[in-house]
């Protein structure tokens, strides 16, 4: 549940934290960045190229009512993305029963497949939006989301393979919606409080969308579970049509006026193919292993091919591509730290939310609607965390905020990993519902600030997209790792005690990941203080 927000726009403009070792330089860079409304040096409006001016921002031409509706429409990108995740999670076993599927490894694919493509294609979809228009790709993404949601429901007449296939392709919708929704907000507002509020609202929709998915999947399951997806598809079609009316004609990047051949070159197609293939094959192997057994030869073939494609992607991006999707030359030690911390935290989150829902439904016997009620505090706590994070980033180093985020992920997971099956909800599960959102809603903005401090201005734009990719991909990959552990420690899941042992094995793995992330983030904190001391010593000479 990525929450790109809190004073950080799509151009990667950071809200620099107090006490940064780069305060003076950061403030100068922030001032320069405020003069740049998008990634490019010029924009075109009404087919006339102009320099950046306040009149180019679409928000200044909207009435208050239109502006509110516009922001609400863009926020549906975040909201529907989370609905797509939890609408299956809330009725996972009901869907599995209709297909005769009880294997936990296969059931996890119902979630992991969606997160896999949602994370894998964000960078590619963002680049396509840069070249062909944010509004156009936003609407196409909404319609694509609707089509494959409809097919996911229709799979009830086929088998689980069609359902998984539909879920995988369904994830391409959010991959298009998230970066282009953020870009639409970025080009519509000048830097300032109104823009910051728009991004805060965008991020705050994530917990509410998750709870909404749980709630309405539970309601529709009372009739027939496919209606969860069919009704969602109808809503997405209506939103797509509404978006074409509400989203104004945007000021466009100069790259959108280039010829098709030049656009294709700028898309970095070889990099996109090798990068996507590497991510998909590697993830497929780890999620397929628990489902069908690691003795299957094709799983190792996919794993090896994934590594080979990753090597090819590195070669293409570092040696051949003129406009690489991921310029590896910017990957300093700071960037590697932040990517590793984000991956650890969000992989743990994926494990937490998946196995907690199984714990509540399978071992406590709660129906889907009661499961939705259990998760309701996440929406309230998440909204509060969204506001609090803006304050934290103004007064605390981003590295400390990252440490705090990973600690919340760890504490929340420990609370459920140690909870007895029949202990009251209010003792541990309720508390973890309040704690986990602070991990979710502080990690993304902290990571983006650290990324912004570590790279030059020309690479700021890729920060939010890259981190969103890591967030969503880590959820899927973490489930694959955890599923492998679960099936190897649950003794076949023959008794409730065995099932609980498998769940706890997965949770303990998530706790270990957050422990690694905390160690890395503390190293990063120490590095910042060491740089401060070194800078003061140099200035004192």
From TrEMBL:
Residues 1-45 are annotated as: Disordered. Its main location: membrane. GO terms for molecular function: transmembrane transporter activity. It comes from the Eukaryota. It is found in: Membrane. GO terms for cellular component: membrane. It holds the Pfam family MFS_1. It is a multi-pass membrane protein. InterPro entries: MFS, MFS_dom, MFS_trans_sf. Residues 68-529 form the Major facilitator superfamily (MFS) profile domain. This is Major facilitator superfamily (MFS) profile domain-containing protein.
């Amino acid at each position: 549940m990525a929450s790109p927000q809190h004073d950080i726009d799509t151009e990667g403009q950071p809200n620099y934290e107090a006490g940064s070792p780069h305060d003076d330089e950061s403030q100068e860079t922030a001032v320069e960045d405020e003069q740049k409304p998008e990634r490019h040096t010029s924009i075109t409006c009404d087919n006339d190229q102009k320099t950046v001016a306040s009149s180019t921002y679409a928000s200044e031409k909207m009435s208050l009512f239109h502006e509110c509706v516009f922001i609400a429409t863009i926020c549906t990108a975040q909201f529907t993305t989370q609905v797509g995740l939890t609408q299956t999670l809330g009725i996972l076993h009901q869907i599995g029963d209709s297909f005769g599927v009880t294997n936990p490894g296969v059931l996890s694919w119902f979630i992991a497949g969606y997160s896999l493509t949602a994370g894998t294609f964000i960078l590619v979809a963002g680049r396509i939006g840069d070249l062909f228009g944010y509004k156009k790709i936003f609407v196409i993404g909404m319609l694509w989301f609707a089509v494959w949601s409809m097919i996911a429901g229709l799979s009830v007449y086929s088998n689980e393979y069609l359902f998984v296939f539909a879920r995988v392709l369904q994830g391409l919708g959010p991959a298009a919606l998230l970066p282009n929704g953020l870009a639409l907000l970025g080009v519509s507002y000048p830097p300032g409080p109104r823009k910051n509020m728009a991004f805060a609202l965008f991020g705050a929709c994530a917990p509410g969308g998750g709870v909404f998915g749980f709630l309405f999947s539970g309601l529709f399951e009372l009739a027939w579970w496919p209606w969860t997806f069919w009704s969602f598809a109808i809503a997405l079609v209506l939103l797509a049509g509404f978006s074409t009316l509400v989203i104004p004609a945007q000021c466009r990047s100069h790259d959108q006026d280039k010829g098709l051949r030049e656009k294709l070159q700028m898309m970095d197609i070889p990099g996109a193919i090798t990068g996507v293939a590497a991510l998909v094959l590697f993830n497929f192997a780890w999620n397929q292993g628990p489902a069908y057994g690691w003795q299957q030869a094709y799983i190792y073939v996919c794993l090896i091919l994934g590594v080979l494609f990753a090597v090819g992607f590195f070669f293409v991006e570092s040696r051949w591509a003129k406009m690489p999707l991921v310029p590896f030359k910017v990957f300093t030690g700071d960037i590697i730290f932040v990517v590793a911390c984000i991956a650890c935290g969000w992989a743990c989150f994926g494990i937490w939310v998946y196995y907690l829902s199984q714990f509540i439904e399978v071992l406590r016997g709660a129906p889907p609607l009661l499961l939705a009620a259990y998760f309701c505090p996440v929406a309230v706590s998440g909204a509060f965390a969204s506001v609090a994070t803006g304050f934290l980033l103004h007064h605390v180093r981003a590295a400390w905020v990252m440490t705090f985020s990973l600690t919340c992920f760890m504490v929340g997971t420990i609370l459920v990993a140690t909870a007895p099956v029949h202990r009251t909800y209010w003792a541990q599960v309720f508390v973890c519902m309040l704690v986990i959102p602070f991990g979710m809603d502080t990690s993304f903005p902290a990571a983006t600030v650290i990324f912004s401090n570590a790279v030059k201005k020309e690479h700021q734009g890729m920060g939010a997209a890259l981190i969103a990719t890591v967030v969503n991909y880590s959820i899927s990959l973490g489930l694959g790792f955890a599923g492998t552990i679960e099936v190897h420690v649950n003794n076949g899941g023959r008794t409730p005690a065995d099932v609980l042992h498998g769940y706890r094995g997965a949770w303990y793995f998530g706790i270990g990941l957050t422990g690694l992330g905390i160690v890395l983030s503390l190293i990063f904190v120490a590095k910042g203080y060491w740089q401060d001391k070194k800078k003061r010593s140099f200035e004192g000479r």
